[in-house]
Amino acid sequence: MKFNWKDDDQKYIKLGLTAFAVVVLSILANQVLHQIPLLTVGVKTLLGCLKPIAYGLVFAYLLTPLLNMFERWLFRLKFFDKGNTKSFRLVRGISVVLAWGVMICVVAVLIKLVVPEILSSIQGIIDNMPVYIITLRRWVSRLLEGNPDIRDWIMTQIGKFYTDFTSVAGSFPEFVDKISKFMPRVGSFAASVSSGVFSAVTGTFNIVVGVIVSIYVMAAKENFVAQAKKFTYALLPTSQANSLSRTVRLAHIKFGGFFVGKIIDSAIIGVLCFVLLSIFRIPYAMLLSFIVGVTNIIPFFGPFIGAVPGAIILILANPLRCLYFLIIIVALQQIDGNIIGPKILSNSIGISSFWVMFSILVFGGLFGFWGLVCGVPLFAVLYDLISGAVNVHLKKKGLPVQTRDYHDLGYVDTETGEIISRKDKDGSNDSEGR
Questions:
Q1: CA distances from residue 45 to 42, 57, 183, 205, 214 in whole angstroms, order as listed
Q2: Do residues 63 and 218 lie in contact, with contact meaning Cβ atoms separated by under 8 Å?
């Protein structure tokens, strides 16, 4: 049976089907929106389950340079043959153990030496805070004697700060007592590690599982990389897989070179800061050096960010020592920026100081602390990718890719593709005018 639909009938049928589709899609969208909380909980649960894996991957990535170094040393010995499978597995196992052994020894020694000094410095600040507050009140009262409203407001804020500080500081002795009970265990643990007996790693569940995952990843890192490449080439077209592989390799060079170099650089700056602060007898030397060393991981602004809390503490305790401290920080920043940093980081980033500052400001504003830390290598990767794409398009047009070739560019001849410099352009204009 054949239906002869009129034009008006077809129009109403289309409208009805459209309305029905809109209603169905609206119901589905409403159901999806109502399920978003459950989806969010599910995603958070999944991320929580994957957190030990993420820890393990980070540990393995940071320790891989140590692993490679130990492998190179061991293969230089005559009784290890890199081409022999059993010998290679033995060297890999020894290298994994040595890498984690060095890591544990360094952390244990740092905790044993640094933590007590830091706790002592914090306790000293807590004990001296009433004196600092009195000194600060006197300064504010003297400086703002002619502005009573501003003075009273600042005095109120100082009082609120001291109240909050006192409530937080009240729980500090209990915290110190717990740490003090834990310290002997750390010492015995460090001694056992140094004697070659590796004890079970203690800590939170995520860190323990992360350590185990990192051992597996480090032991078979080539196999995991090969599996990732196999999956990539199976899933994507060959050209896209090649492009992704190059991008990942570039990211590895930038991130690996940056983070490993920055950690070494920050450790050196922290040690130098402690030595200089100790020579000038500046109080809380260990605490201030620790803050400066940690914040030095942030490029460009790191030392100055670390100097702010130290300067606030010292200006209340001893203004002259505060001046010494600021001079030392500026000197360290110059030494790090001109000598230590370039030697360690070399050309691992490959972007100018302007782009370093730009990336810190942009990614720090978008992502906070992690943007400050990861912004520079991430921007370096984006910079290289954009530069590569620009160079490809320039080559297709038959134009040079070196930036210096564009310094004196006036225009490009549309017929010949020749670059006309500004001098030639001005000369031609002059001749035309005459």
A1: 5, 19, 34, 16, 22
A2: yes
